[in-house]
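Fold in tokens:
===
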Amino acid sequence: MAHVELLNVGNFPKGTGKTGLSISWPDIAKRLEHAPFVSVAAIRGRARGLGSEFAQAFDIRFASKEKARLAQVEIGIGSFPGGGGMERLHLLTGRSRALEIVLSGNDYDAETAALYGWVNRAIADDELDAFVDNFAKRIDSFDKKAISSIKAIMNERAQLPTNEEILSTQVKFFESLQEPEARQRIKGLFEKGLQQNGDLELNLADRI
């Protein structure tokens, strides 16, 4: 998942979801956080921008040691993470490392991401699918009420982001995209091949 779709960035589906959030993606992420089941992400390939924020909404994340790359690249278009990264990343990595990730716009390999807490573990690519499948099946073998209680209590202790915090960042994110500097940077990236299958997208963190 490369990043947010920038050509039609203002045309996301709208409407109030079950969580009370009025924009579709934040509602989905909040529902994942508070669901009575455990969500486990297996990351193979690039998870940048909204792709990284999608992974952050999962309860547990494992990444391919050889193939996973994570990044928050929004600084390269004169903006900042608007899909939950400002609210969730620091809960995983701590403030200083979250600032490093967001301000650098760099790619991070799976081993560094695991060291930072961005993902739980870096797993050899040829072992990733079996590891995640076995891990999920092990959790599934336990009592569902206990699983739900553990997650609910952890959520309370972790002080997950509020709706107000998420929506405030969303508003500021969309406003930032209208700034002249951001519009100029986005235009230049599209001219170089943004959102096309090619060198720019594959190496976006290096090209911004």
